[in-house]
Amino acid sequence: MAQRVTLKQVAVQAGVSYQTVSKVLNKQAQVSKETKERILEAVQTLGYHPNSIARNMRLQQSCLIGYSWAPAPPDQVNPILDQLLQSMAQAAETAGYHLLCFPHHFDQETVTAYRDLIDTNRVDGFVISSVEYDDPRVTFLQERGFPFVAFGRSNPELSFPFVDIDGAAGMQMVVEHLVRLGHRHIAALAWPKDSRVGQNRMDGYLSGLAANGISVSPGLILRCEGNFQGGLEATSRLLELPVIQRPTAIMAFNDVMAIGAIRAAQERGLQVGVDLAITGFDDTPMVQYLTPTLTSVRQPIWEVGQQVISILLSILNETSLPGAQVLVRPELIVRESSRGQSIQNDKTKLVNYP
Amino acid sequence: MAQRVTLKQVAVQAGVSYQTVSKVLNKQAQVSKETKERILEAVQTLGYHPNSIARNMRLQQSCLIGYSWAPAPPDQVNPILDQLLQSMAQAAETAGYHLLCFPHHFDQETVTAYRDLIDTNRVDGFVISSVEYDDPRVTFLQERGFPFVAFGRSNPELSFPFVDIDGAAGMQMVVEHLVRLGHRHIAALAWPKDSRVGQNRMDGYLSGLAANGISVSPGLILRCEGNFQGGLEATSRLLELPVIQRPTAIMAFNDVMAIGAIRAAQERGLQVGVDLAITGFDDTPMVQYLTPTLTSVRQPIWEVGQQVISILLSILNETSLPGAQVLVRPELIVRESSRGQSIQNDKTKLVNYP
DNA sequence: ATATTGAATGCGAACGTTCGCCCGAACGCT
DNA sequence: AGCGTTCGGGCGAACGTTCGCATTCAATAT
Lengths: 354, 354
Fold this sequence. Notes:
Mean pLDDT of chain A: 92
CATH topology of the largest domain in chain A: Rossmann fold
Number of domains of chain A: 3
CATH class of the largest domain in chain A: Alpha Beta
Number of helices of chain A: 12
Strand content of chain A: 5-15%
Order of helices and strands of chain A: HHHHEHEHEHEEHEHEHEHEEHEEE
Structural class of chain A: alpha/beta
Largest sheet of chain A: 6 strands, parallel
Largest interface: A-B, 64 and 64 residues
CATH superfamily of the largest domain in chain A: Response regulator
Distance between the termini of chain A: 57 Å
Oligomer: homodimer
């Protein structure tokens, strides 16, 4: 491996003190044009690159942003992880920052890993995701006064910078879409009450119904686990209701529940999209290849990643409005499962309500 | 934010020089029992944690492992990213290392990002994945003599440390399985010839046939893009062959192609799993919820992550056998699409050929 | 009694930067 | 001619560690 080139070697080559080289490179000094050129030339020929560890040492920062996430359960895949990481990494890189990814620990206290990274000065800030009510990470980081930005909200009374998807708006779009198709009996496959994201989507479902003058039928709201089995069983129960109470449309709170719902309907010989509308949430890439293709709500993850990093960087540079809170609108993707058309495999229509 | 505690403060508290504190903490010195206890007590009460930037500065290392990956195309999801990252991050953490994730650049020369990270001393080593023939990263890192481990092989003549899935073995398991069910006309939905992974899987397909005394029918090998559309169109062509040439089983080189194949078969009114066997590769979590559920090959990603990091760490500690090359066996997951049974949704049988 | 060991600890130096202060020279002004 | 101002650049210091060598003191061997 080539020996590292340092400031001093450049300085010798250019015949100046090494501190002057540093000044030139940081564009902050008043140096004559000639010496400046001489120095830059020496930098070129020697192939000098600043040692970031030494810079970090001097500047008392690491230029690293910590990020950790809960792994997806084995029967599911995290549909946004790839894009979120790429987006955040890209936004960070342009500012000279990088992402430090650390593993999620179920067993021990969650905040331990965060504390260690702070105590050892490894990171300058955090991005946290999958934020829940009374999230221990939020309270911990707030107590320590350590910079962080959340992807997702928490308790309304807690005030901290976040970026979140407007899940309520997304659900409202779905309701709107179904109502236009003539549906009035719209069921919801919801999550347990302790889910913050679930509550947000529920709000959208309810306000969507209200906005269209539809009264809520408690029997059409089923709370269950957000997986295939949950969607399957809940839908089975819905389809056993007396005809007059039975829903003509089912809104699942995520895609994998919708897939369970489709299976339940098909087992009863129903043609999804014709006899019964079913919608999902997340727009997992594969749902466009289901039979029928699934109507879902797509989250603008790239934008979330950009915003999260942008806010965090402004906090780190202390150029921030203290409590930036951003909501981004998702996008409704209408497909066969809610359209009542015959099945075609290559048509996907994008509808984005403004 | 609390003022940072340094070695010197601990030293003052314990009444020794700060270098002695360092020695105690690194367990390398001969210090008396009493002072050792006094120092450790001071460390406790002051809450001292070593500043990792300063350590890195002194030790001329960053304890960071660089990792970058090509994002999945928009209609697909990377089924292994989550688990691979968690596995690598976990393995790294136990050795005091962390993952530095940087974005993939399509436009510029791929190695630029790698070069920058090396030049600025940001990372101690790399993990690279999606390795192809004549991969520029391999040649670049070999030239620079910079530590790295690959997830995936490249040209056979290149010698570097890697961990790879034995894709050939996986495909052979599939052939074996299909032959036991009585299939003799087994088609392959393959990838373009420049794909290293594709070639590896093709080898397994061919040797699997040979091992069972089945001669290769060139008409049953179709090369196409590894996406839904590719699988759909290739399967359509296969199903238009004269009955005597038509395959009774189709092995797709990945899951999303298999999904396209299923669609093509269903459009012709075939019952997949009964009239025609179809298999995938990767065992993307969602394929267990397809109709019919999909037989696929599962890759032991957790193990890959552990091995990759373990090898890299041994290189960094110079305790390595120079060219560790590890193959891990995948696992065949048999489901309805190749079983010829009526459709049931909750039965998944695992078969792992030894 | 003196030389030889060994343990326990102190001390200087270095890793590669950045920052602020200082100093000399040149310049323009009264 | 004297004085303040600006420009160009040098220099010391510090960030918090770790490492190797020097030093002290007591114990043992000669």
